[in-house]
Specification:
Radius of gyration: 13 Å
CATH class: Alpha Beta
Strand content: 15-25%
Number of strands: 5
CATH topology: Rossmann fold
Distance between the termini: 30 Å
Strand order of the largest sheet: 2-1-3
Helix content: 25-40%
Number of helices: 3
Shape: flat
CATH architecture: 3-Layer(aba) Sandwich
CATH superfamily: Flavodoxin domain
Order of helices and strands: EHEHHEEE
Largest sheet: 3 strands, parallel
Number of domains: 1
């Protein structure tokens, strides 16, 4: 079974981009793909700012990406710019 990792950059749990990532995940699961999701908003901010690659949360996210056969990035766009996260 192929594995797909979806990285969501939405800063809020309920948003159009979050709904889009859930729709994509459901469709891929219907097609028998294994889907894993990384919500960047849930990663420790301090670990991201200081590039703490030894952080367990960062290592887990990296593993999901490394193990994936495909990666889909979903990020909201607001006033022609993408989210900082």
């Amino acid at each position: 079974m192929s594995q797909v990792t979806i990285i969501t950059g939405s800063p809020s749990k309920q948003s159009r981009s979050a709904a889009l990532s859930e729709y994509i995940a459901a469709h891929l699961q219907d097609e028998k793909y294994e889907v894993k999701t990384v919500h960047v908003r849930d990663l420790p901010a301090e670990d991201l700012v200081y590039a703490n690659f030894s952080s367990p949360a960062i290592q887990e996210a990296q593993k999901k990406v490394a193990d994936a056969d495909a990666v889909i990035i979903v990020s909201p766009i607001y006033k022609a710019s993408y989210t900082g996260i």
